[in-house]
Design brief:
Shape: elongated
Largest sheet: 6 strands, mixed
CATH class of the largest domain: Alpha Beta
Main location: cytoplasm
Strand content: 15-25%
Organism: Escherichia coli
Radius of gyration: 30 Å
CATH superfamily of the largest domain: P-loop containing nucleotide triphosphate hydrolases
Number of helices: 10
Keywords: ATP-binding, Cytoplasm, Nucleotide-binding
Distance between the termini: 71 Å
Subcellular location: Cytoplasm
CATH topology of the largest domain: Rossmann fold
Strand order of the largest sheet: 2-1-3-4-8-5
GO cellular component, one term: cytosol
Length: about 350
């Protein structure tokens, strides 16, 4: 049973009078002996003459041994076996005697083990990806392959097929139409595919921050937390296609492979080697659309999505999406895809709703 890590002390384990040396530690001044008797009791003794002592309560699985502590005087061991389940537990009382410093170190180590083993599998997976990346020389793409949706992106109707072909062949694509036609899902999925295949270096997602005829006031949190609800539709697709661990890695500011930013932050930028998605484009003005489209650089694909029928701009303000569609209608280098009510794939009820409000 391990009580301390490799920099605390060294110890010997005796199980039914059979000694097993488990490790030599740097201090070399304390000997901790664990003695297992037929009844569920064992003692922890150091070679110190000081009378400092501390009592612990421990539980351990029959198939696995390890000390864990949630309080200074409370140690629990709940290490799981390989199959993740242990049915049989034994309660042990541990008497630890030795110098106060050694006892404190043992307590700290016990609490560290508890924190490590009490984390969820997802947390351990994310931290392992982070630690591997920090070591350098590690190819991050593919680490979360087990949780990534790798199914092919297939069109469910003619409009979606036209949309997919436009994304693959054009640098600037406008997609407009009714809700539920798959505009956001397809654009985000194709962006994730391009990043995984290393066709681009990053994904940039932006949208105007306008609320649907409601004012929620000031939102709490930092800038990322304030805008998180607005970007949830695209974020969910990226997490599904990239994998949660790799998505979190890409969102780190120092990595910057995925950037989710409000539309107001686009001025002065230059987009290169990226897939840029402007969602809810019906809520930008003509001047804002011009500002956005003049950000384009080399090797960039810009996808502009929106539904003109659900514009939240003030009355009398022209939508930048409608204005751009008129300006680029005859441009062969620009792809324009228009979805109709019959192209809705969200659900039959959503399609009926679109017909009812038409």
């Amino acid at each position: 049973m391990e009580i301390a890590d490799g920099n605390v002390l060294y110890w010997t384990c005796l199980d039914n009078q059979r000694a097993t040396t488990r490790g030599v530690f740097s201090s070399g001044s304390h000997l901790v002996t664990l003695h297992f008797q037929p009844h569920p009791f064992f003692s922890c003794v150091t070679d110190a003459v000081n009378g400092a002592r501390s009592r612990f309560s421990a539980f351990y699985p029959k198939a696995n041994y390890g000390l864990q502590g949630s309080q200074p005087s409370d140690v629990r061991a709940h290490n799981r076996a390989a199959n993740g389940a242990c049915d049989e537990y034994k309660q042990l009382k541990v008497l630890s005697m030795g110098r106060q410093k050694a006892v404190i170190k043992a307590r700290r180590e016990a609490k560290r083990v508890l924190r490590r083993d009490s984390r969820s599998h997802k947390q351990r997976e994310e931290e392992s990806v982070t630690s591997l990346v920090q070591m350098g020389g590690v190819e991050a793409i593919g680490m979360a392959r087990d949780s990534r949706d790798t199914s092919p992106i297939l069109a469910r109707n003619e409009a979606q097929l036209h949309y997919l072909k436009a994304i693959e062949s054009k640098q600037l694509i406008f997609a407009t139409g009714e809700a539920g036609c798959g505009k956001t899902w397809i654009s985000a999925a194709k962006a994730a595919e391009a990043l995984i295949h290393k066709d681009v270096d990053r994904i940039i997602v932006t949208r105007p921050v306008l609320q649907a005829d409601e004012d929620l006031g000031f939102l709490p949190g930092d800038i990322a937390e304030k805008f998180a609800p607005y970007f949830r539709p695209v974020y969910d697709v990226l997490v599904r296609r990239l994998g949660a661990s790799f998505m979190q890695y890409c969102l780190r500011p120092e990595i910057g492979k995925v950037e989710i930013a409000p539309f107001a932050y686009m001025r002065g930028r230059t987009f290169e080697n990226a897939v840029v998605i402007l969602d809810e484009a019906q809520n930008v003005t003509a001047a804002q659309m011009k500002m956005f489209l003049t950000r384009l650089g080399e090797n960039v694909t810009v996808i502009v999505n929106g539904d003109i029928t659900q514009c939240d701009l003030p009355r009398g303000v022209c939508s930048g999406l409608s204005d751009a569609l008129e300006r680029f209608e005859e441009d062969e280098m620009v792809g324009i895809v228009r979805f109709g009510k019959e192209d809705c794939v969200r659900s039959a009820l959503c399609q009926r709703t679109l017909h009812a409000y038409s």
